[in-house]
Amino acid sequence: MDKNPPACNRCRDNAPLDFSFSMAFQPIVDIAAGEVWGWEALVRGEHGEGAHSVLSRITDDNRYAFDQQCRIRAIELAHRLGMPGRLSINFLPNAVYEPKACIRATVEAASRVGFPLERIQFEITEVEEVGTDGHLRRIVDEYRAMGLGTAIDDFGAGYAGLNLLVRIQPDVLKLDMDLIRNIDQDRVRRLIVGQMAALARELPCLLIAEGIETLEEAHCLRELGITLHQGYLYARPAFEALPQPAAEVMTALRAA
User: Fold this and answer.
1) Distance, CA of 104 to CA of 191 (rounded, Å)
2) How distant, in Å, are the alpha carbons of 129, 130, 167 from that of 94?
3) CA-CA distance, 79 to 115, in Å (whole number)?
4) How many beta carbons lie within 10 A of that of residue 220, not counting itself?
5) Is there a contact between 28 and 38 (Cβ–Cβ < 8 Å)?
6) Structure pTM?
7) Helix (H, G, I), strand (E, B) or coil at 174
8) Which of 36, 38, 150, 159 is the most exposed place for a label (fewest CB within 10 A)?
9) 220: nearest Cα among 255, 172, 181
């Protein structure tokens, strides 16, 4: 297997950006095991400013370099912070020009700091239709060949639906937070999410519920068999740090 694919002229890792940025991390909690399963890397300004301060500066000319440097920054920070578990990094498929070449910087960064590739997963976060079937398939196939995981973010919203699931068959599905909001009070949401949980078991793939804000939502999701949780209930994203889930929340879930 070629672990050092050739460089891509459009997304080379040394392409300059005229702005700086960093990352915040939010835990993904395995409530069945009572521990953190992994962390999602979320882009922030150089001094912790919100994501919009960075994303508003992305153009067609710099999106390839930005995508590469996001991966490198997330991996380097994860290593510096001693991150256990998985590292989840967002990416836009349309920012990947040539999959085999564009993954080079990711592999090199992980190798340089000793972060195992099998602990990295990429979340497809495209809010618009993502390229062609062939292009997206090549991206996923190349990532898997390297030992990287793949996830569909915001599953159940917009284009992140069943068609995308059929196209790439990811390792992880992350349920859209609109499906989670007040799920304990909404029979229709419970029915839909329950069917998604059954689908994930059959595929099989892991299912993560994100955007959880209340204990009632967490209890309801556990009853539906979903035990990988992410949201403000457990911890808000922390700038250049690895926040731990709130102890009182974990205690309450164990007691229930």
Assistant:
1) 42
2) 9, 7, 16
3) 7
4) 23
5) yes
6) 0.90
7) strand
8) 159
9) 181
The class level of CATH for 28-255 reads: alpha beta
Greater pLDDT, 8 or 243: 243
Contacts of 6 (CB under 8 A, 6+ apart): 100, 101, 104
Amino acid identity of residue 215, one-letter, is L
Compute CA distances 8 → 63, 92, 115, 120, whole Å: 13, 17, 23, 21
Residues shown for the chain: 256
Token digits of residue 119: 């602990």
Q: Would you list the domain boundaries of the chain? A: 28-255
Pairs from 76-84 (Cβ < 8 Å, separation ≥ 24): 76/109, 76/113, 77/22, 77/23, 77/25, 77/41, 77/240, 78/25, 78/39, 78/41, 78/115, 79/113, 79/114, 79/115, 81/25, 81/240, 81/241, 81/242, 82/242, 83/25, 83/39, 83/242, 84/36
Q: Give the C-alpha distances (Å, rounded to integers) separating 229 from 33, 189, 234.
A: 12, 17, 8
Integer Cα distance of 130 and 93 in angstroms: 6
Residue 128's pLDDT is what? Answer: 53
Distance set, CA 119 to CA 19, 76, 146 (Å)? 29, 14, 11
- Torsion from C-alpha of 182, 186, 192, 195, nearest 10 degrees: 100
Q: Give pLDDT tens digits for 207-242.
A: 999 999 999 999 999 999 999 999 999 999 999 999
CB burial of 176-200 (b: ≥16 within 10 Å; e: otherwise) equals bbebbbebbeeeebbeebbebbeeb
> Which pLDDT score is estimated for 175?
96
Q: How far is CA 178 from CA 66, 154, 229, 244, in A?
A: 29, 9, 14, 24
Q: Who's near 205: CB < 8 A, 6+ residues apart?
A: 169, 170, 171, 172, 173
